[in-house]
Amino acid sequence: MKVALVNFAKYEKFNSIDSFKKDLEFLKENNIDYVDYCFNYNKKKDLLSGFRKALANPDIDLIWFVCGGNKTIKFLDDVDWNEVKKANKIYAGASDFTHFSFKAVENDQVCYYGTSLQSIKEYHPTISSRKYLVDFLQTGKIEKYNHKNLYKTVSNLDNEKIIGGHSFLTTFMLSETEINLKDRFLLIEHHYIPGESLEDLEYFIDQLKRVIKGNLPKGFILGHSMLFNKKGKMININIINKKFVECLKEYQLPIAYIDHFKQIVKFS
Q1: For residue 175, which phi and psi values (nearest 5 degrees)?
Q2: How many helices (H) and strands (E) does the chain have?
């Protein structure tokens, strides 16, 4: 499988940043067949041109958004979604990629959520911890979901449609897209800034609840959320998930947990 590297999330020339050079080494070390369409660009028009070249390249199978950030929203109206549908690639990314993935799924495209290229060895420090990702980049196939039931029972999750992503980006995109959730599970993961409290998280969940009250999903999937206390120490994931369950169980819908740092989730 041939992979295109694109970037909508940051206006930076990655080829001048040492950490990104290490990320490219990851691709070379694992014999990932890739084409770079973003590492030398830091202007919107050039990054958009790179994306269009990836769409037009018939050899490209997967378009991988290489990092998170806060610029993807600026590209949504510039993307020719008819070109996207015609190219019919698959797409992967995380975090800010949520903006793109909602629009892509709305246009009948398949996306994969869970990882970016940036700092990949920090999140996956061992060969065994990144095997699932290497396999995906080489074959386009993902492993069977290893989920944990948190409220009620979710079964046959591999056969379910899933959509979602970063918590408040998901809320925003649900408010402007016409994706019907009734036949889908909604994945939610939260990360933002150090010092956020569980009460801050509850605020973002309350926002989401207002948006979905007339468009409830089949159930919820919690991703690997990250909250840090005022001292910068990460809050235990079980405590974070407990807060999610407390806020969402009123719907009497199943809630499961997938560590999207360890497995990729298909959105469709």
Answers
A1: -75, -15
A2: 9, 11
pLDDT tens digits, one per residue of 193-245: 777 889 889 999 999 999 999 999 999 999 999 998 777 788 999 999 999 99
Q: CA-CA distance, 155 to 147, in Å (whole number)?
A: 9
Amino acid at 46: D
DSSP classification of residue 74: G
User: 3-state class of 6 per DSSP?
Assistant: strand
Dihedral over alpha carbons 128, 131, 132, 134 (to 10 degrees): 160
In one letter, which amino acid is 78? D
pLDDT digits (tens, 9 = 90+) for 159-170: 999 999 999 999
* 151: helix, strand or coil: strand
Q: How many angstroms separate the CA atoms of 113 and 266, rounded? A: 6
Which amino acid is present at 52?
A: R
Question: What digits encode the pLDDT tens for the residues 179-197?
Answer: 999 999 999 999 987 778 8
